[in-house]
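User: Can you help me understand a structure? I only have the sequence.
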Amino acid sequence: MRPTTDRAWIDAQTLRPVLTRRSLIVGIASLTGGCALASCSSESHSTTTAAPEQGTGAVPPTSSLFTIFDRNEFARAGVPQRLAFAVAGPDGSPSKEAPTAIDLRISFGGQPVSGPIRVDRHSDGVPIAYFPLRFTPESIGTYTVSTTIGGSEASASFRVGSESQIKVPQVGDKMLSVETPTDADHRGVDPICTLQPSQCGLHGSSLDTALRANRPVALLVSSPALCQIGVCGPVLDILVEQAAKTPDVLAIHAEVYTDRSAARTTPAVAAYHLNYEPALFVVGADGTVIERLDNVFDRAEVSAALTSSLHR
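Assistant: Let's start by predicting it. Here is the structure, written out as tokens:
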């Protein structure tokens, strides 16, 4: 969510616990090229130069695999994780010409852990093709995910931390009750929605009130206008669309900043220990987090998450 710079993809190693206009939450930048999020160093991605694989879609002449999450401060050991990866083209930006699916192999300490896991490409409604890998890392330390793109190897590494290090609510946790701005009570946030050209309409209820109603809830934390990244607006549009199709799920949107100066973050950001955006928490009627989608997620993933909450 940092303002766009000459490097549209920003290294997430610059994250800080307290976010300011100069040190902001990092999700995905504006998709115009440059360095991949959290994977700018040579250890985080490798390059391929071979011809496209048959039957899996086109592959750019030079491709690399990278993480669309902070590779140092995101994944937690012992609980299910959803980790988004992307294939970059020669300029370092994510390619819409990524394969329709890739097979990902996971290793830890140089030893195979799992794989190959077939992961389909997602891009419905968002300006990036990505691959959401789901697995449960059992140990704290550095994991490496590898794949074959166009006949050559590509890999990306990331660190898995402990519960004390990674404090973002996980699948299986009870959702934290926090007040969020509503149409009736802005709670010091102005504007309560920066979606353009009109607000999203998902501010009818505060999160704390919604959780007491014993019904499924979806909370999206994103700042479409102020973060200036290419995904926050589209995912909010998707949530508005899908919430209309699943009215039994109460969808709520919370902005990241208290005002357009982007000097202070809202209580939801602090409560959930977020150092990135967007983040979508989907909660069952019992108040338990049943799905968490981070950094980038498309229409198919949002639809599946909302639908799954109806059966919990």
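Now, to help you interpret it: Confidence is low (pLDDT under 50) at residues 1-56. The radius of gyration is 19 Å. Let me know which part you'd like to focus on.
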